[in-house]
Amino acid sequence: MTLFWISTLILVLIALAFLIVPVFVGSNQDQVASRDELNKAFFRDRLGELKEENSEGLIASPDEMEVELQQSLLDDVPAEQIQQYTLFKPWLMLPGVLVILGLSYGLYSIVGNQQKVATWQETVSRLPQLTQKLMVQHADPLTDEEMDALTLGLRTRLHERPNDATGWLLLGRIGIANRDIETAQGAMKRALDLEPTDPTLQLEYARTLMMGGEPGQLQFARTMLKHLLERHPTNFEAMALLAFDAFSQGDYPVAIQFWEQMKSLPGIGDDRLRMIEGGIAQAKKEIERAANPSPGVTVTVNLAPSVTLPEQGIVIVSVHTADGAPMPLAARRLPLSRFPLTLTLTDSDSMIPDRLMSQQSKLIVRARIDRDGNVATKDGDWFGESGIVSLGGETSITIQSQF
Length: 403
What we know:
With 403 residues, the protein is an alpha+beta fold. The chain is built from 14 helices and nine strands. The protein folds into three domains: 2-112, no CATH class; 130-283, Serine Threonine Protein Phosphatase 5, Tetratricopeptide repeat (Alpha Horseshoe), CATH 1.25.40; 296-402. The chain crosses the membrane at residues 6-25, 91-111.
Protein backbone atom coordinates (compact mmCIF):
# COMPACT_ATOMS: atom_id res chain seq x y z
CA MET A 1 0.00 0.00 0.00
CA THR A 2 2.93 2.35 0.66
CA LEU A 3 3.97 2.09 -2.98
CA PHE A 4 0.40 2.89 -4.01
CA TRP A 5 0.25 6.11 -1.99
CA ILE A 6 3.68 7.16 -3.25
CA SER A 7 2.45 6.59 -6.81
CA THR A 8 -0.65 8.71 -6.21
CA LEU A 9 1.49 11.49 -4.73
CA ILE A 10 3.68 11.51 -7.82
CA LEU A 11 0.64 11.73 -10.10
CA VAL A 12 -0.81 14.60 -8.06
CA LEU A 13 2.51 16.46 -8.22
CA ILE A 14 2.52 16.04 -11.99
CA ALA A 15 -1.00 17.52 -12.13
CA LEU A 16 0.11 20.44 -9.96
CA ALA A 17 3.06 20.99 -12.27
CA PHE A 18 0.66 21.53 -15.17
CA LEU A 19 -0.93 24.31 -13.10
CA ILE A 20 2.14 25.97 -11.60
CA VAL A 21 4.82 25.79 -14.29
CA PRO A 22 2.86 27.65 -16.98
CA VAL A 23 2.07 30.41 -14.50
CA PHE A 24 5.74 31.11 -13.76
CA VAL A 25 6.91 30.67 -17.31
CA GLY A 26 4.02 32.75 -18.64
CA SER A 27 4.69 35.49 -16.04
CA ASN A 28 8.30 35.89 -17.16
CA GLN A 29 7.29 35.98 -20.78
CA ASP A 30 4.59 38.57 -20.02
CA GLN A 31 7.12 40.77 -18.25
CA VAL A 32 9.48 40.67 -21.23
CA ALA A 33 6.63 41.34 -23.64
CA SER A 34 5.35 44.25 -21.54
CA ARG A 35 8.81 45.83 -21.39
CA ASP A 36 9.22 45.56 -25.16
CA GLU A 37 5.81 47.09 -25.83
CA LEU A 38 6.49 49.95 -23.40
CA ASN A 39 9.86 50.69 -25.03
CA LYS A 40 8.22 50.83 -28.44
CA ALA A 41 5.49 53.14 -27.18
CA PHE A 42 8.03 55.55 -25.58
CA PHE A 43 10.17 55.48 -28.71
CA ARG A 44 7.25 56.25 -31.05
CA ASP A 45 5.98 59.11 -28.86
CA ARG A 46 9.39 60.77 -28.46
CA LEU A 47 10.21 60.25 -32.15
CA GLY A 48 7.01 62.10 -33.06
CA GLU A 49 7.97 64.97 -30.76
CA LEU A 50 11.45 65.18 -32.37
CA LYS A 51 9.93 65.39 -35.83
CA GLU A 52 7.66 68.23 -34.74
CA GLU A 53 10.57 70.12 -33.10
CA ASN A 54 12.71 69.54 -36.22
CA SER A 55 9.99 70.93 -38.49
CA GLU A 56 9.82 74.02 -36.28
CA GLY A 57 13.61 74.44 -36.52
CA LEU A 58 14.20 73.85 -32.84
CA ILE A 59 16.75 71.00 -33.31
CA ALA A 60 20.12 71.52 -34.95
CA SER A 61 21.11 67.80 -35.33
CA PRO A 62 17.99 65.63 -35.65
CA ASP A 63 19.92 62.46 -36.60
CA GLU A 64 22.07 62.60 -33.48
CA MET A 65 19.01 63.24 -31.35
CA GLU A 66 17.26 60.19 -32.81
CA VAL A 67 20.24 57.95 -32.09
CA GLU A 68 20.46 59.34 -28.58
CA LEU A 69 16.72 58.75 -28.12
CA GLN A 70 17.04 55.14 -29.18
CA GLN A 71 19.84 54.54 -26.69
CA SER A 72 18.15 56.31 -23.79
CA LEU A 73 14.85 54.55 -24.27
CA LEU A 74 16.50 51.14 -24.27
CA ASP A 75 18.35 51.91 -21.05
CA ASP A 76 15.88 53.97 -19.06
CA VAL A 77 12.48 52.23 -19.18
CA PRO A 78 11.00 52.65 -15.69
CA ALA A 79 11.04 49.09 -14.27
CA GLU A 80 8.79 50.18 -11.40
CA GLN A 81 6.02 51.01 -13.86
CA ILE A 82 6.29 47.56 -15.49
CA GLN A 83 6.41 45.69 -12.20
CA GLN A 84 3.27 47.32 -10.84
CA TYR A 85 1.33 45.80 -13.72
CA THR A 86 3.20 42.46 -14.07
CA LEU A 87 4.02 41.50 -10.48
CA PHE A 88 2.89 37.86 -9.87
CA LYS A 89 1.38 36.87 -6.51
CA PRO A 90 2.01 33.12 -5.73
CA TRP A 91 -0.76 32.87 -3.13
CA LEU A 92 -3.29 33.31 -5.92
CA MET A 93 -2.51 29.71 -6.99
CA LEU A 94 -3.54 28.27 -3.60
CA PRO A 95 -7.22 27.71 -4.54
CA GLY A 96 -6.19 25.81 -7.67
CA VAL A 97 -3.81 23.61 -5.69
CA LEU A 98 -6.52 22.85 -3.12
CA VAL A 99 -9.02 22.01 -5.84
CA ILE A 100 -6.64 19.53 -7.48
CA LEU A 101 -5.83 17.84 -4.15
CA GLY A 102 -9.48 17.74 -3.13
CA LEU A 103 -10.67 16.32 -6.44
CA SER A 104 -7.88 13.71 -6.60
CA TYR A 105 -8.19 12.21 -3.11
CA GLY A 106 -11.85 13.10 -2.62
CA LEU A 107 -12.99 11.27 -5.74
CA TYR A 108 -10.76 8.30 -4.89
CA SER A 109 -12.35 8.03 -1.44
CA ILE A 110 -15.77 7.85 -3.15
CA VAL A 111 -15.18 5.64 -6.20
CA GLY A 112 -11.77 4.09 -5.53
CA ASN A 113 -13.01 0.99 -3.60
CA GLN A 114 -10.36 1.61 -0.97
CA GLN A 115 -11.91 -0.89 1.44
CA LYS A 116 -11.96 -3.63 -1.20
CA VAL A 117 -8.33 -2.92 -2.07
CA ALA A 118 -7.37 -3.12 1.61
CA THR A 119 -9.25 -6.42 1.96
CA TRP A 120 -7.51 -7.76 -1.13
CA GLN A 121 -4.10 -6.82 0.23
CA GLU A 122 -4.92 -8.42 3.58
CA THR A 123 -6.05 -11.59 1.80
CA VAL A 124 -2.82 -11.77 -0.20
CA SER A 125 -0.82 -11.45 3.04
CA ARG A 126 -2.61 -14.57 4.38
CA LEU A 127 -1.60 -16.70 1.39
CA PRO A 128 1.30 -18.59 3.11
CA GLN A 129 -0.89 -19.46 6.12
CA LEU A 130 -3.79 -20.70 3.98
CA THR A 131 -1.46 -22.65 1.68
CA GLN A 132 0.09 -24.43 4.67
CA LYS A 133 -3.35 -25.37 5.99
CA LEU A 134 -4.38 -26.73 2.59
CA MET A 135 -1.26 -28.90 2.33
CA VAL A 136 -1.58 -30.48 5.80
CA GLN A 137 -3.54 -33.71 5.30
CA HIS A 138 -5.09 -34.05 8.77
CA ALA A 139 -5.85 -30.37 9.32
CA ASP A 140 -9.40 -29.07 9.48
CA PRO A 141 -10.79 -28.44 6.00
CA LEU A 142 -10.78 -24.87 4.75
CA THR A 143 -14.03 -22.96 5.10
CA ASP A 144 -15.72 -21.48 2.04
CA GLU A 145 -14.42 -18.04 3.03
CA GLU A 146 -10.87 -19.35 3.43
CA MET A 147 -11.12 -21.17 0.11
CA ASP A 148 -12.22 -17.98 -1.65
CA ALA A 149 -9.41 -16.05 0.03
CA LEU A 150 -6.86 -18.68 -0.97
CA THR A 151 -8.10 -18.59 -4.58
CA LEU A 152 -7.86 -14.78 -4.71
CA GLY A 153 -4.38 -14.82 -3.18
CA LEU A 154 -3.17 -17.50 -5.58
CA ARG A 155 -4.54 -15.72 -8.64
CA THR A 156 -2.80 -12.53 -7.51
CA ARG A 157 0.51 -14.33 -7.06
CA LEU A 158 0.16 -16.12 -10.40
CA HIS A 159 -0.54 -12.79 -12.11
CA GLU A 160 2.74 -11.51 -10.72
CA ARG A 161 4.64 -14.80 -11.24
CA PRO A 162 2.95 -16.72 -14.08
CA ASN A 163 5.78 -19.29 -14.24
CA ASP A 164 5.16 -20.61 -10.72
CA ALA A 165 4.26 -24.27 -11.30
CA THR A 166 3.54 -24.88 -7.61
CA GLY A 167 1.05 -22.02 -7.57
CA TRP A 168 -0.81 -23.44 -10.58
CA LEU A 169 -0.83 -26.85 -8.89
CA LEU A 170 -2.45 -25.40 -5.77
CA LEU A 171 -5.02 -23.52 -7.85
CA GLY A 172 -5.84 -26.76 -9.66
CA ARG A 173 -6.36 -28.60 -6.36
CA ILE A 174 -8.69 -25.85 -5.20
CA GLY A 175 -10.64 -26.31 -8.43
CA ILE A 176 -10.87 -30.05 -7.72
CA ALA A 177 -12.13 -29.40 -4.18
CA ASN A 178 -14.76 -26.98 -5.52
CA ARG A 179 -15.75 -29.29 -8.38
CA ASP A 180 -14.73 -26.49 -10.75
CA ILE A 181 -13.51 -28.77 -13.53
CA GLU A 182 -12.67 -26.00 -15.99
CA THR A 183 -10.45 -24.14 -13.51
CA ALA A 184 -8.85 -27.37 -12.30
CA GLN A 185 -7.99 -28.57 -15.80
CA GLY A 186 -6.69 -25.18 -16.92
CA ALA A 187 -4.49 -24.72 -13.87
CA MET A 188 -3.08 -28.25 -13.99
CA LYS A 189 -2.35 -27.87 -17.70
CA ARG A 190 -0.41 -24.64 -17.04
CA ALA A 191 1.57 -26.34 -14.27
CA LEU A 192 2.37 -29.33 -16.49
CA ASP A 193 3.47 -27.08 -19.36
CA LEU A 194 5.98 -25.48 -16.98
CA GLU A 195 7.22 -28.82 -15.55
CA PRO A 196 6.36 -31.48 -18.17
CA THR A 197 8.41 -34.27 -16.52
CA ASP A 198 7.05 -33.86 -12.99
CA PRO A 199 5.14 -37.09 -12.09
CA THR A 200 2.97 -35.30 -9.52
CA LEU A 201 1.75 -32.81 -12.12
CA GLN A 202 1.14 -35.58 -14.64
CA LEU A 203 -0.92 -37.44 -12.05
CA GLU A 204 -2.97 -34.40 -11.05
CA TYR A 205 -3.66 -33.37 -14.64
CA ALA A 206 -4.84 -36.91 -15.44
CA ARG A 207 -7.13 -36.75 -12.39
CA THR A 208 -8.78 -33.53 -13.62
CA LEU A 209 -9.27 -35.01 -17.11
CA MET A 210 -11.02 -38.03 -15.58
CA MET A 211 -13.27 -35.74 -13.56
CA GLY A 212 -14.42 -34.12 -16.80
CA GLY A 213 -15.69 -37.45 -18.12
CA GLU A 214 -15.26 -36.59 -21.81
CA PRO A 215 -14.31 -39.71 -23.83
CA GLY A 216 -11.31 -38.07 -25.46
CA GLN A 217 -10.08 -36.69 -22.14
CA LEU A 218 -10.55 -40.07 -20.45
CA GLN A 219 -8.50 -41.85 -23.08
CA PHE A 220 -5.73 -39.23 -22.89
CA ALA A 221 -5.67 -39.55 -19.09
CA ARG A 222 -5.42 -43.36 -19.27
CA THR A 223 -2.52 -43.12 -21.69
CA MET A 224 -0.75 -40.57 -19.50
CA LEU A 225 -1.17 -42.73 -16.38
CA LYS A 226 0.08 -45.86 -18.13
CA HIS A 227 3.19 -44.01 -19.34
CA LEU A 228 3.66 -42.72 -15.80
CA LEU A 229 3.54 -46.29 -14.45
CA GLU A 230 6.14 -47.38 -17.00
CA ARG A 231 8.56 -44.87 -15.47
CA HIS A 232 7.33 -45.22 -11.86
CA PRO A 233 5.93 -48.77 -11.44
CA THR A 234 5.13 -48.27 -7.72
CA ASN A 235 3.05 -45.10 -8.05
CA PHE A 236 0.04 -45.89 -5.86
CA GLU A 237 -2.09 -42.93 -6.95
CA ALA A 238 -1.72 -43.72 -10.66
CA MET A 239 -2.81 -47.32 -10.05
CA ALA A 240 -5.76 -46.15 -7.92
CA LEU A 241 -6.99 -43.81 -10.66
CA LEU A 242 -6.77 -46.54 -13.29
CA ALA A 243 -8.55 -49.01 -10.98
CA PHE A 244 -11.40 -46.58 -10.26
CA ASP A 245 -11.68 -45.74 -13.96
CA ALA A 246 -11.88 -49.43 -14.92
CA PHE A 247 -14.50 -50.05 -12.22
CA SER A 248 -16.67 -47.13 -13.32
CA GLN A 249 -16.45 -48.33 -16.93
CA GLY A 250 -17.62 -51.82 -15.88
CA ASP A 251 -14.26 -53.42 -16.65
CA TYR A 252 -14.14 -55.24 -13.30
CA PRO A 253 -11.33 -57.74 -14.08
CA VAL A 254 -8.96 -54.88 -14.96
CA ALA A 255 -9.97 -53.02 -11.78
CA ILE A 256 -9.24 -56.14 -9.70
CA GLN A 257 -5.87 -56.51 -11.44
CA PHE A 258 -4.82 -52.98 -10.48
CA TRP A 259 -6.07 -53.37 -6.90
CA GLU A 260 -4.14 -56.63 -6.51
CA GLN A 261 -0.98 -54.86 -7.69
CA MET A 262 -1.61 -52.08 -5.18
CA LYS A 263 -1.86 -54.61 -2.32
CA SER A 264 1.71 -55.70 -2.99
CA LEU A 265 3.15 -52.18 -2.72
CA PRO A 266 5.24 -51.51 0.41
CA GLY A 267 3.90 -49.25 3.14
CA ILE A 268 0.35 -48.79 1.84
CA GLY A 269 -1.16 -48.66 5.36
CA ASP A 270 -4.25 -50.25 6.89
CA ASP A 271 -6.70 -47.62 5.62
CA ARG A 272 -5.62 -48.04 2.03
CA LEU A 273 -5.61 -51.81 2.38
CA ARG A 274 -9.22 -51.81 3.59
CA MET A 275 -10.19 -49.58 0.68
CA ILE A 276 -8.50 -51.96 -1.76
CA GLU A 277 -10.15 -55.04 -0.25
CA GLY A 278 -13.52 -53.34 -0.41
CA GLY A 279 -13.02 -52.46 -4.05
CA ILE A 280 -12.00 -55.99 -4.95
CA ALA A 281 -15.00 -57.46 -3.12
CA GLN A 282 -17.38 -55.07 -4.86
CA ALA A 283 -15.86 -55.80 -8.28
CA LYS A 284 -16.26 -59.53 -7.71
CA LYS A 285 -19.91 -59.01 -6.74
CA GLU A 286 -20.45 -57.06 -9.94
CA ILE A 287 -18.95 -59.89 -11.97
CA GLU A 288 -21.21 -62.40 -10.20
CA ARG A 289 -24.23 -60.17 -10.66
CA ALA A 290 -23.56 -59.89 -14.37
CA ALA A 291 -23.37 -63.67 -14.61
CA ASN A 292 -26.62 -64.19 -12.66
CA PRO A 293 -28.88 -61.22 -13.36
CA SER A 294 -31.99 -60.67 -11.25
CA PRO A 295 -34.68 -57.95 -11.29
CA GLY A 296 -33.42 -54.73 -9.83
CA VAL A 297 -33.28 -50.97 -10.18
CA THR A 298 -30.79 -49.08 -12.36
CA VAL A 299 -29.78 -45.73 -10.92
CA THR A 300 -27.57 -42.89 -12.13
CA VAL A 301 -26.08 -40.77 -9.36
CA ASN A 302 -25.20 -37.16 -10.24
CA LEU A 303 -23.41 -34.53 -8.16
CA ALA A 304 -24.69 -30.96 -7.85
CA PRO A 305 -22.10 -28.20 -8.52
CA SER A 306 -22.50 -26.91 -4.96
CA VAL A 307 -21.27 -30.16 -3.40
CA THR A 308 -17.75 -30.23 -1.96
CA LEU A 309 -16.31 -33.73 -1.94
CA PRO A 310 -14.24 -34.88 1.06
CA GLU A 311 -10.69 -36.09 0.47
CA GLN A 312 -11.69 -39.59 1.58
CA GLY A 313 -15.02 -41.37 1.77
CA ILE A 314 -17.42 -43.71 0.00
CA VAL A 315 -20.73 -43.49 -1.86
CA ILE A 316 -23.59 -45.49 -0.32
CA VAL A 317 -26.51 -46.23 -2.65
CA SER A 318 -29.51 -47.84 -0.97
CA VAL A 319 -32.96 -49.06 -2.04
CA HIS A 320 -35.97 -48.58 0.26
CA THR A 321 -39.66 -49.39 0.22
CA ALA A 322 -41.89 -46.80 -1.40
CA ASP A 323 -43.03 -45.48 2.00
CA GLY A 324 -39.47 -44.26 2.69
CA ALA A 325 -38.66 -46.62 5.57
CA PRO A 326 -35.14 -45.90 6.88
CA MET A 327 -34.06 -49.56 6.84
CA PRO A 328 -32.84 -50.32 3.29
CA LEU A 329 -33.83 -53.39 1.35
CA ALA A 330 -30.47 -53.37 -0.44
CA ALA A 331 -27.38 -51.22 -0.44
CA ARG A 332 -24.03 -50.93 -2.08
CA ARG A 333 -20.82 -49.10 -1.18
CA LEU A 334 -18.82 -47.59 -4.01
CA PRO A 335 -15.40 -45.88 -4.09
CA LEU A 336 -15.53 -42.11 -4.11
CA SER A 337 -14.20 -41.58 -7.63
CA ARG A 338 -15.99 -39.56 -10.30
CA PHE A 339 -19.57 -38.68 -11.16
CA PRO A 340 -22.02 -39.49 -12.62
CA LEU A 341 -22.17 -43.10 -11.37
CA THR A 342 -24.45 -45.68 -12.99
CA LEU A 343 -25.20 -48.99 -11.28
CA THR A 344 -27.92 -51.62 -10.91
CA LEU A 345 -28.98 -52.88 -7.49
CA THR A 346 -30.54 -56.34 -7.27
CA ASP A 347 -31.39 -59.01 -4.67
CA SER A 348 -27.68 -59.77 -4.38
CA ASP A 349 -27.34 -56.40 -2.64
CA SER A 350 -30.06 -57.25 -0.09
CA MET A 351 -29.36 -56.40 3.54
CA ILE A 352 -31.67 -59.07 5.01
CA PRO A 353 -32.20 -62.37 3.17
CA ASP A 354 -35.94 -62.54 3.90
CA ARG A 355 -36.56 -58.95 2.67
CA LEU A 356 -35.72 -58.96 -1.02
CA MET A 357 -36.13 -56.19 -3.55
CA SER A 358 -37.91 -58.56 -5.88
CA GLN A 359 -40.75 -58.81 -3.36
CA GLN A 360 -41.57 -55.10 -3.85
CA SER A 361 -43.20 -53.50 -6.87
CA LYS A 362 -42.47 -49.85 -5.97
CA LEU A 363 -39.20 -48.53 -4.56
CA ILE A 364 -37.20 -45.39 -3.87
CA VAL A 365 -33.41 -45.02 -4.08
CA ARG A 366 -31.15 -42.90 -1.92
CA ALA A 367 -27.48 -41.97 -2.31
CA ARG A 368 -25.14 -40.53 0.32
CA ILE A 369 -21.49 -39.51 0.41
CA ASP A 370 -20.17 -41.01 3.65
CA ARG A 371 -16.98 -39.39 4.96
CA ASP A 372 -15.92 -41.82 7.71
CA GLY A 373 -17.34 -45.20 6.65
CA ASN A 374 -19.67 -45.29 9.66
CA VAL A 375 -23.31 -45.43 8.53
CA ALA A 376 -24.44 -44.30 11.99
CA THR A 377 -22.84 -40.83 11.61
CA LYS A 378 -24.39 -38.52 9.04
CA ASP A 379 -23.64 -34.96 10.19
CA GLY A 380 -22.21 -33.02 7.26
CA ASP A 381 -22.75 -35.83 4.72
CA TRP A 382 -24.24 -34.98 1.32
CA PHE A 383 -27.24 -36.96 0.06
CA GLY A 384 -30.00 -37.21 -2.54
CA GLU A 385 -33.17 -39.21 -3.12
CA SER A 386 -35.13 -40.40 -6.14
CA GLY A 387 -38.85 -40.48 -6.72
CA ILE A 388 -40.83 -43.70 -6.71
CA VAL A 389 -39.53 -46.19 -9.28
CA SER A 390 -40.85 -49.58 -10.34
CA LEU A 391 -38.86 -52.79 -9.89
CA GLY A 392 -36.82 -53.30 -13.05
CA GLY A 393 -36.99 -49.61 -13.88
CA GLU A 394 -34.44 -46.81 -14.08
CA THR A 395 -34.10 -43.59 -12.10
CA SER A 396 -31.61 -40.82 -11.35
CA ILE A 397 -30.48 -39.05 -8.18
CA THR A 398 -28.78 -35.71 -7.71
CA ILE A 399 -26.75 -35.40 -4.52
CA GLN A 400 -27.35 -31.82 -3.42
CA SER A 401 -28.52 -31.71 0.21
CA GLN A 402 -26.55 -31.96 3.43
CA PHE A 403 -27.41 -33.40 6.82
